[in-house]
Amino acid sequence: MTVVVTGLGAVSCFGSGTGALWEGLLGASRRPDPAPDVCGLPARPHLYAVPDGDAPARGTGRTGALLATAVAEAVAEAGLSAGDLLDAGLTVGTSLGDIDLSEPGVGAGAAAGAGADARPGAGAAAGTGPGTGPGPFGDAVGVPPATHRVAASLATRFGIGGPGQTLSTACSAGAYAVGWGAELIETGQADVVVACGGDAFSRVAVGTLQRFGLLDGECCRPFDTGRAGMVTGEGAAALVLESAESARRRGRPVHAVLAGHGWSCDAHHPMAPEPSGEQLRRSAARALAGIDGTPGAAVLHRAGVAVNDTVEAAAISAAVEAAGGSGGDVLGYAPKAVMGHTAGAAGVFGCVIAALVLRHGLVPPNAHVTDLDPDCPLTVPLDRPAPLARPSVLVSGTGFGGNNAVLTWRAAA
Amino acid sequence: MTAVLITGVGAVAEEPRTDGDPGPWFDPAAHLGRRGWKYFTPATRYLLAAANEALGRRHDDPPPAGVAAERFGVVTGTQYAIARVHRRMDTVLTGEGVHGISPAEVPGFSMNTPGSQLAISTGARAFSVTLTNPVTAGLEAVQFAVTALRTGRADVVVAAAADQAPEDHGARGEYDAAAAVVLSAGGRASGTAGATRPLATVTGGISRFLPPGPAGDLAPAALDRSAARVAALAPSPGGTDAVRLLVGAPPAAAPHAAAVRDAVAEALADRGVPVRDADAGGTRPARHCAVSGLLDLIGPARAGETALVLSISELGHLTAIGIHRADPVGPEFI
């Protein structure tokens, strides 16, 4: 069964909307801000923060608010009615959910928009029915922890009554949320699935990434030889996935067609990728089997962590070559340079960006490159947008635990 | 459609104690041997213990034989995997600063780490996915596994769940546990070595979202719609087996769960499917966090009973899994 995209939504450091996202990516200049908390470090770390006005607190934590913004845009663009959503599915990729509700004091600085909701238990304010109450740690009876309630608050807010899962496969959670949403459609469990991902600033996440030496103190620069790690970002992204038959029946325009998706697990190390990239290559090969020829572009997971970046590019290039193409024919793009690593949102952002690349026929230029990584076998657009030679885009997601997911998209016929 | 078989089950669970014994309920050395688990979180240790039991292996055994690593997947439900680690780290960060955090405990701050350690231990390379909806994530793992087996993403999947309850049992009577079931695609895999015969056949799994309204009641139309779909997981009428109906929910959601139970029983009656022990109705308290529904599934699975097992959260998630006694062993199950 063919799965298509009929709605897109995003909120990122560029503000709300896929229009703002695309403009920001084309601008290729965004740098991170100081984080709203010092995170136990000598100085405030960096964060690609969502502007306060674009993270309206509506009775959830900050991630829930970001997800609600992105889902509202995607559902509106897809023209879904309340009736359409009664049996629709909802798949949510998130690493930490509404973690701010468990980090007292976060939000007092740059994230002041969420500050009013950032105290423990604030998630209870708007109420999502019985069971909603003061939050996560020991301050009320009858309430699960706030962190992973974002799916329930979204389903309640939008009236989404069909199958729904929250996927937390670390940094590939968003890619898995999209892949699992497609599985629900392909197996007849839903005709329409809202697949989304979101994560917001977490003091503990940033502190522990720094403890492991995984953060770049300057900015995220995945294609520069001077890269020194990732920089976290906030955001949420959403896709309305739908069977092609459902989209035709509803008369909705199709933004992209899912051509294939592959999953794999390195089963190697809780935090580092398996150096040969064999499992990632295998999932890429399965995704590539759905398209004819070589994809025009690859929206990479590439986050500025040198070992991971190298393994990813080599694995994707090897899969392309095994399918008869050449890595040099693929335009590699690393959006994290200008929007940071958005954790559970990253894979969904990758898919939204793939749809925008297909719509515009352009790949944005890679940002913050002074000295280009000579080891990347893909072609790396710099300075100006590059035309997309073939209407297909690969999206890869990798995460702690060696959780790999690769999707391929093609333009609607 | 691919028949999905349960070929192994395992569980460890803390139960309320009345004897005042303050000692730990779980002895990792007894389950995992003397080495190799020191830096694992409690939820990870529980998960490995339950999954190893289901797979019929010991912790230091090589990966299971009988299935290729690339065709072997893991899916894990949890809601509290990082809760205690997160709180401790936040206290350290805001107090003494980042150098107070031990690198050895950093992996514990990722929801997927228990599942990833299981994948590493068993060499599962088809996928390792972690699901995190409160309460229902354990049964969702079975739904996920059944779907992945039917779409050909794996031939054998361990569907599992693990949680360490908050301190003081979360002030709402929650306890630690892990559970695991081994599922295999009939006709494609014989199950892992050691599985001598299938215990039960899975008819299917579904999830729905049924939020309570402002007064705590469920919208009747949505309830009926969901109940009909759950009832459709029962074997066709005409069989000899009555269906055992097990509905679990946290105590706060008990009225909600009772309404679902009644609606499903009615929908089964409409289909002509008898409910076993119908007079012994009621619902079960889900006291083991996201593991609860999976624990409820294990009894009937082990006994090869025909059953519908439902897990319901306070927030509105509902997951149901149907099983019946194992199909006769055919040549495909060697």
Automatic annotation (TrEMBL), chain A:
<feature type="compositionally biased region" description="Low complexity">
    <location>
        <begin position="113"/>
        <end position="123"/>
    </location>
</feature>
<feature type="region of interest" description="Disordered">
    <location>
        <begin position="110"/>
        <end position="143"/>
    </location>
</feature>
<protein>
    <submittedName>
        <fullName>3-oxoacyl-ACP synthase</fullName>
        <ecNumber>2.3.1.179</ecNumber>
    </submittedName>
</protein>
<dbReference type="Pfam" id="PF00109">
    <property type="entry name" value="ketoacyl-synt"/>
</dbReference>
<dbReference type="InterPro" id="IPR016039">
    <property type="entry name" value="Thiolase-like"/>
</dbReference>
<dbReference type="InterPro" id="IPR014030">
    <property type="entry name" value="Ketoacyl_synth_N"/>
</dbReference>
<dbReference type="InterPro" id="IPR014031">
    <property type="entry name" value="Ketoacyl_synth_C"/>
</dbReference>
<dbReference type="GO" id="GO:0004315">
    <property type="term" value="F:3-oxoacyl-[acyl-carrier-protein] synthase activity"/>
</dbReference>
<dbReference type="GO" id="GO:0006633">
    <property type="term" value="P:fatty acid biosynthetic process"/>
</dbReference>
<feature type="compositionally biased region" description="Gly residues">
    <location>
        <begin position="124"/>
        <end position="136"/>
    </location>
</feature>
<keyword id="KW-0012">Acyltransferase</keyword>
<feature type="domain" description="Ketosynthase family 3 (KS3)">
    <location>
        <begin position="1"/>
        <end position="411"/>
    </location>
</feature>
<dbReference type="Pfam" id="PF02801">
    <property type="entry name" value="Ketoacyl-synt_C"/>
</dbReference>
<keyword id="KW-0808">Transferase</keyword>
<dbReference type="InterPro" id="IPR020841">
    <property type="entry name" value="PKS_Beta-ketoAc_synthase_dom"/>
</dbReference>
<dbReference type="InterPro" id="IPR000794">
    <property type="entry name" value="Beta-ketoacyl_synthase"/>
</dbReference>
<comment type="similarity">
    <text>Belongs to the thiolase-like superfamily. Beta-ketoacyl-ACP synthases family.</text>
</comment>
From TrEMBL, chain B:
<feature type="domain" description="Beta-ketoacyl synthase-like N-terminal">
    <location>
        <begin position="39"/>
        <end position="167"/>
    </location>
</feature>
<dbReference type="GO" id="GO:0016747">
    <property type="term" value="F:acyltransferase activity, transferring groups other than amino-acyl groups"/>
</dbReference>
<dbReference type="Pfam" id="PF00109">
    <property type="entry name" value="ketoacyl-synt"/>
</dbReference>
<dbReference type="InterPro" id="IPR016039">
    <property type="entry name" value="Thiolase-like"/>
</dbReference>
<dbReference type="InterPro" id="IPR014030">
    <property type="entry name" value="Ketoacyl_synth_N"/>
</dbReference>
<protein>
    <recommendedName>
        <fullName>Beta-ketoacyl synthase-like N-terminal domain-containing protein</fullName>
    </recommendedName>
</protein>
